[in-house]
Design brief:
By secondary structure, the chain is α+β, with helices and mostly antiparallel strands. It contains 8 helices and 5 strands. Strands 1-2-5 form a 3-stranded antiparallel sheet. A two-stranded antiparallel ribbon has the order 3-4. A hairpin with a 2-residue loop joins strand 3 and strand 4. Helix 1 crosses helix 2, helix 3 crosses helix 8 and helix 6 packs across helix 7. It starts with a helix and ends with a strand.
Length: 195
Amino acid sequence: MKLDTSKIKELREKTGLSVMECKKALEEANEDIEKALEILKKKGLEISEKKEKKEVREGKIGAYVHTNGKIGVLVEVNCESDFVARNNEFEELIKNLCLQIAAMKPRWIDIDSVPQEIIKDKINEFKEIFKDKPENVIEKIIEGKLNDFYKENVLLKQNFIRDESITIEEYIKSKIAKLGENIKIKRFARFEIGE
């Protein structure tokens, strides 16, 4: 089957993946770009899950200072090799993470970093607010409210500012799939004048 080269080009522009990977995905999806994107996303998640256990001892520290000089960010992002740490894709990831942290003010990297006492306080707060509701409804409300809290305060759960359709966690997983190495955010600090 001869594929439409414009579709391969379009898929490449959307994903940044190789011509062969885009071609295979389009063949599998019968030239449907949306289906091909889903196939590539699924393959990327599978790759990132395999890579999660690998140690990350290399990486870079990214820095960003907003043009007004009132907001600054430092972030340490680790990967498996120095080769990937020097890659343009990795550098772009760090830059985007700095911008995300500057704009969205996350407090923690992942859900495991959120102190248990804060989670307990939030649960108690929601229980008090919705105490008149049935117990099974309260549990669902609490789950939804906690997810909202995480989306606002946990970096990996926030929507990516450059593509609201994905979270930072999904964005990082796409880079893991593309670069073929595990990538982890080790730590970050955000500074703002007056805070």
